Amino acid sequence: MSLPRLWTSGQELASDPFRAIRREMENALRAFDQSSPSPSIGAGAPAINVAETNDAFEVTAELPGVDEKDINISLDDNQLVISGEKKAESTKEEKDWHVEERSYGSFYRSMLLPFEPEDGAVEAHFDKGVLLITIKKPAKAVKSTKTINIKTGAPPSTPPVSNKAAAPNKAA
């Protein structure tokens, strides 16, 4: 049994029809998505990763094209807030634009921490469009692992507990 040939714009695609269909679907979705703003930046929320170590939380946020001076990090009790603005590089009147997929504008992201950080426990570094925030856990929030020794043999026997109710005192 031979597979049917798929044609697009006068050119034969791959001999695998599923690959060809997948490519056409991706193209259609990409064309549809061009009209909507990117959810990762520009009036949206930057993509983040959150990791936990024994003594800290590490939050990494992708902020490509954002200047360090345009990023605000704040801490309100146990809520961490990352906000700022990605500014446009040029005005639309300067050029005839054919494709515009990059977005600009304000961004905002917040997350609740499982503890309230102590003063001086938060550090932020920005390198190559990636913001790394390290939040040290307070001493009371640091988990400590305790090893329990295993004893061999049956547990020591305990005297049986009597289920009988105590006899009431009889007056003579």
Per-chain topology:
Layout: E1 7-8, E2 11-12, H1 17-33, E3 48-52, E4 56-62, E5 71-76, E6 79-86, E7 105-112, E8 122-127, E9 130-136
Antiparallel strand pairs: 1-2, 3-4, 4-9, 5-6, 6-7, 8-9
Characterization of the model:
The protein is mostly beta strands and 172 residues long. Helices cover 10% and strands 30% of the residues. It is built from one helix and nine strands. The protein has a four-stranded antiparallel beta sheet, with no helix packed on it. Strands 5-6-7 form a three-stranded antiparallel beta sheet, with no helix packed on it. A hairpin with a 2-residue loop joins β8 and β9. The chain is elongated, with a radius of gyration of 31 Å. The model is unreliable at 1-14 and 35-41 (pLDDT under 50).
Computed structural class: mainly beta
Strand order of the largest sheet: 3-4-9-8
Low-confidence stretches: 1-14, 35-41
Work out the helicity level: under 10%
> Strand percentage, roughly?
25-35%
| CA-based shape | elongated
Strand tally is: 9
Could you give the order of the helices and strands? Answer: EEHEEEEEEE
Q: How can the largest sheet be summarized?
A: 4 strands, antiparallel
Output the radius of gyration. Answer: 31 Å
> What is the number of helical segments per DSSP (H or I, 4+ residues)?
1
Measured between the Cα atoms of the first and last residue, the distance is 107 Å
**Overall pLDDT level:** 78
